[in-house]
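User: Sequence in, structure out. Go.
Assistant: Echoing your sequence, followed by the structure tokens.
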Amino acid sequence: MVRIRHTSVGSIPDSRDAAGDDVAGHSRYGWRGRDREWEMVARLLRAARGGRGGVLLFEGEPGIGKTRLLEEAADSAASQKFQLARGAAEKLSRVVALGPLILALGESTQTLLAVPQLAGGMDARLRLLDAVQARLEERAARGPLLIALDDLQWADPTTLLALSTLVPELSSYPLVWILSRTAGRRDSGVARLYDVLERDGATRVTMGALARPAVAEIAADVLGVAPSPELLALVAGAGGNPFLLVELLTALRDEHAVQTIEGRAVPISSRLPHRIREIATRRLRGLSPRACHLLQVAAVLGCCFEADDVAEMFGEPLARLLPALDEAEAAGVVVRGPDLLSFRHDLSWMAVTETIAPTVRRALHRQAGQMMLERGSSVAAAAHLVEGARPGDAAALAGLDRAVREVLPTSPETAAELAVRAVELTVPGDEAVFDRVLRAVRALTTAGRLSEAVRLARPALRAATTPRGRCAQLRYELAYALLQAGHVAEAVAEAETAIDQGDLPDELRGLLEQVLSHGPLGSRARPRARQRAEAVLASSRQHSRPSLIAAHLVLTDVAWSEGRAADGLGHSHEAARIASSEPIRYIRPHVLYACTLMDMRRLTEAETALRIATDQITALGTTAHAAIPTLLRARLRLIEGRLDDAATEARAGLATADKLGAHLYDVFGTTVLATVALRRGDLTAADTYADLSRSHHVPGLDPMSAWWWTNWCPTLVAEAQGGPERTVDLLQAPYTDPGERRLLFMIEADAAAWLTRIALALGDRARANAVTATAERLARDAPDFPTLGASAAHAHGLLHHDTAALAHAATAHLTSWSRASAAEDLGVMYARATGATDRETAIHHLDQARDAYQQAGAQRDVARVRARLRRLGVRRRHWTQSKRPAFGWDSLTDTERNVAALAAQGLTNPQIAARMFISRDTVKFHLSQVFRKLDIASRVELAHRTGPHGFRRNA
């Protein structure tokens, strides 16, 4: 259960001055001596009223005053008309995904977690994060918002992931985050979160012991007179901890251990009434045995608990327990909340817990887990079962199994923890061990803990007790984990082994063959995969959807490698169509379809396919694939000649991939960034990105079967750095292998002309002939695809000095950069002629190329064409328009202007993303650029700088 100390979206009457700066004279003990911390809070609240958000990270030992700090911050914020959202996590609530955030916002957990369309076992974190972010943006757009979250050392992994995303994502809103955790516990997750947020600019504060003046003030308040030096020396044993200090002073007062001498409180004895460690249990000593037993049972249920649960644990009607509950409340151990009872302080809860023998505590946890299982609440039971289950406990293990299935869609990290624990509790010989390993491997993979998934799966496959007939299912899970980790060769090997076992269900075989579709085109599995694919489609009614999808994927790759564009597009479209009809675990059909459309330069259709792929990934919650649409959109923007947008999408996609640890498709982003840098003339950056592109190739993938994937970009950079001679070794494969050359030309429309140009520069006409022949054959075999025809005409014109062919390419190419390249080649060809008419024609075509390059921002290409024009005696200005400045409104790109205008109108990041058909990460990146260039830090400031329709104001 997640407890909420306070939730409010309204405000309370202002009891301080309008600025909210009255921070002196705190009457509550926890605030004495905390002026420094309070000033930090006040500073953030002032900034938020001006439109800027901020983050405070508090940490310290139990009782040091963190919770009181959050309470005072909320009161102050409310007095200044802030919207409030407050929550806290509890140890036994770690199975509730996003619990503290959802309840702090006052939302219904069921509403946000109700995603029935999700397939079993799919990761729903993206949907949950989207829902929470949308709520936060809606509120922050209405005015300043304070979010205070306490006890994050108990937060579930999904909450920690959400905070690492949401805090920077919403930094442009007037949103103040105050987070608190108890340090020193095994809370590496929240410790990493603090480290990340601090690196991003959050202020981290370790709350230490109270100074001596603050201790003296508190002592005077509790005792009614000023403390003597002797008393201050005695209470120094509390270590400056406010909670322990008040408890100690109260004990001295109640036990008449102090006397007043000359107006000062003086201790009667120099000894403490009890050890400091026992102060939290002092209130228990006067309780009856029944009240003590009740508290022990309640402590097992958590720091917060329901009275009905305690009664059920006792097996008695609640009415019989009321006297004991009243006794505990009267003693100040338990306090009432609006819905729950809770221990007065964590220290009290911990002290009661420590009075229970470990064996008894485990038994009580087991009893609590069984109680919740009987209610049908396996998720709530899981936390208790993890604490109390014994090895071989069949009922407890069944409850954990059920909890794993229920938690996996919303919190795969938690599901993985529960599943691994269930495996550990399973005794040798238990028939259920295989299912538990299978479930744990799937949960670990979904959570992104791929190496752990592999380490768990492999020994299980080698175990003699593993059912032979079911090994293939576990081998598929292993192959899937290896594939996501980028170990394609190992994944393919595992899939082949599983298929070789034979007698597989059709659906499982289809999933395995989808893994095989990633393998090298020349692998031994390819001929069998093609035969199987053709046989499956010949009797399609007899096969499952995964088998049909796998068949179309394999045949898409085969068709592309053979240069059959129509067949390849048809198969990729059909695979995507089948995958769209019902959610499945695999996303490659949509990715492959978008890629084939981009290859053929059907850019409008490719844009639509990417939107569908994005929607599908979001609907499935397949977190590991979240970066793919953005990375593919980067390539699409590059093809369109929109270099700024291409670079932005690539950086956003790589950032998302890095955040998720999913690097399988990083090569798309690094290739785009290298190409953009190359076109802009930044060869140092291009070389850096080319190295990254080469290092991000898929491990185990045969380079001869994917030359474009690993070598196209580095080869372009090598030529730019050292001329054609630097490319000789790199180009061996496409020049000598017809299959590799054919596949390259299907993917990259400009490759045929480029390879022809390089071969001619090296004096190797035979290779130029081979390149042109392949390009022309592709064009003849696919007359309905103009990009192949333009590519062939371009190569033919270069080889045969055919101006008509080059002129055709200069108009037939489907992208502006390709048309500019053909126009440049045509201008060069005319420039080599001697007539005056030829010179004028050369200048005309070179001007066309220069204008097109310039419009696309390809400065390096512009500089090269200008040099050609100078050799013809023509000098052109560097720019037909003034160069964009580095800062100010005029420094913004068109896309940045559009994003700024929509943000200034009050649209949230998701709304801007939907309006502009870009990712939220891309919107975030554009906004960061806008803020940097305009030297602002918030949407409020942006709105002041723009008019009602997003146009720049003079002010």
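User: And one key feature?
Assistant: The mean pLDDT is 82.
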